[in-house]
Amino acid sequence: MKKWQLVGSTTVLGTALLLGACGGAAENSDSKSEDKATDTAAKDVKGEVNGDGSSTVAPVTEKINEQFNAEYPDVTVSIGTSGTGGGFEKFIAGETDFSNASRDIKDEEKKALEDKKIEYTEFKIASDGLTVAVNKENDFVEYLTFDELKKIYSGEAKTWKDVRADFPAEEIKAFSPDQSHGTYDFFSEEVLDKGEITAEKNADTNVIVKSVQDNKNGVGFFGYNFYQENKDNLKAVKIQKEGKGEGVEATEETVKDGSYPLSRPLYIYAKNESLKSNEAFKTFMKFTLDNAKDASKESGYVPLEDKVYEEDLKKLEEVK
User: Fold this and answer.
1) What is the distance between the alpha carbons of residues 8 and 30, in angstroms, rounded to a whole number?
2) Residue 161, Cβ neighbours under 10 Å: how many?
3) What are phi and psi of 179, to 5 degrees?
4) Is pTM beyond 0.70 here?
5) Distances in Å between the alpha carbon of 237 and those of 84, 144, 157, 176, 276?
6) How far apart are CA 72 and CA 78, in angstroms?
7) Residue limits of the PBP domain (predicted)?
8) How far apart are the first and last CA of the chain?
9) Which of 109, 167, 280, 304 could form a disulfide with 75 if both were Cys (CB 3.0 to 4.6 A apart)?
């Protein structure tokens, strides 16, 4: 409603109040019309959207989808969790409209999409701090260097004493995601120079978390939100990369500013043709980018700067 200034004349004041009331009624009417138009537009959007990929990213897109479904009940969005690699396989095969990823797309995946003449757009939706954790009862590991992590996950170190001389001579129980996960690829590239991880592998991140909880000499790594959800039963390890100090802890601040050595962006890769021809998918992606900041925080990840989401929205409009 408009704000009116008080003036000396009673007649003018009365007129102003009358105009204000009329203006308010008009504005309320316009607002109701806009709401009705929005509701109608939402009801008019129908169709299916198919996505797959990273189980790390899935909590964000699933949370967004819950809100989306409430506003667009005639759109069905399916979100699989085959892992980043598995998701890209389906994306390349033309089975999905989007692919969630916890790492950059690989050159061979780019080439496969190019061969299939599938054009895509990359959108960043959050930041993650891949978290290394040990059993809650572990009282000797406070931080690990990249070299020490390499010893553990290459299989070179069999006991904790092999990792560091003042650690106990107890057998290490190391756990890792399997090769279908972008988390595996990211850790392999950053820590092992793309070497093979020899730990016990599992496709289900929750199983990895439980394995560390159940083994006194256990160690594992997973997305930041998996640690946040289970931090009462795990002990996060600080990470040292440059050989100085006693490492950096994964926190919202260190992940956001990149000072945590295992920080990484999380992505959605969208098929351009689907954005152009599938109104339901186009609407879903716009809704995703509008709500990614809050959804990523609520999911236990670190939101990006506003300007990143604004740039992504511009990219979306350019494709559309």
Assistant:
1) 32
2) 14
3) -70, -10
4) yes
5) 25, 7, 18, 15, 45
6) 14
7) 42-290
8) 36
9) 280
